[in-house]
Specification:
The protein is of the alpha/beta class. It is 38% helix and 21% strand. It contains 13 helices and 13 strands. The chain has a 7-stranded parallel β-sheet with strand order 5-6-7-8-9-10-11. The longest helix has 19 residues. The relative contact order is 0.17. Bound molecules: magnesium ion. The site of magnesium ion has 6 residues, from loops.
Amino acid sequence: MKITRINVYQLDLPLSKPYWLSGGRLRFERLDSTLVEIETDEGVTGWGEGCPWGSTYLPAFGKGIRAGIDEIAPQLVGAEPHRLDVINRTMDTALPGHPYVKSALDLACWDILGKAVGLPLCELWGGRTIEPVSLHSSISTGTPDEMVEYVEAARARGYRMHSAKVGADIVLDIDRIRTLTNVFAATDALTFDVNRAWLPDQAIQVMNAVTDCGGYFEQPCETMEECLTVRRQTRQPLCLDESIHTYQDVVRAQTERVCEVIGLKVGRVGGYTKARRIRDFCVAMGLRMNIEETGGSVLADTAAVHLAQSTPVTHRRGTWLCHDMLTVDTAPGQGARNEMGQTVAPELAGLGVEPDLSVLGSPVASYGS
Ligand code: MG
């Protein structure tokens, strides 16, 4: 089986309401998503999606994915899509670095392999576990009272784990953390995600002021070095998210004992071939993971749910469904959806999601014949 054609689609994904991260420093209204369709000479077609969370969240942006695919795709035409390590080496040779560019292409090849052998992706990535995948909500930064309202709205939809976005103003942050803890800590699991907004001295002050609150803290500072300073002077469980781009980053985080949890965002690390290696390292080393995408429609989310579904339940924390915050649905009625705070990977072969072409429109680029 050989790749004959690669079609690239661009889609704007509006958020159902504006969203603030990092204490209001970063604002989001729509995402720029890239969907990839890979055709083969045996009639099997695979789909992938790459969608950074805007252009300010990571060193990644929607136009960058399509520019990168323009460099890589001609090298993949004629390649064998089921040879995933070979595909990834080809991509890394065609364009060193830029991992987020490659994720959609990698996923589309996995989808082809799953369809060809008649197995869902979770079976190829270690085997389906019986436990459903626990979901966490994503709570925009706001005043303490606004954030209580946002969590209440998520609870009404079944969520019992919440990633509350804080950062920027440490006096207000202590108020946010105390307020959310007082209202929800008895029944729900809370993560306070700082999205890099604090400097180490601020992180140490806030975290040590709320040691009685419990909860997890995520990416308090910009760099791994800064987060290590925080780790050494605080007690709460710490999650690294934006600092994790490569397998080597996770090895370093573990070697230096920077964190106990990582955010395994698949697009950021370059796709499922690479994410699965990181997942397996984390399982071996006792690091718990939030397994999810950086953004995207139900297509991207469902792939992440397959990886979570094949990860031991002991080693996964929450999975976030970006599509639950969008007004556009690329595959109505399909894929992994929120079912009162949980979901399961589809039973269909491959990814188990076929996007609605009427939603995607015409390709913005095509490679091959
Ligand atoms: Mg995060």
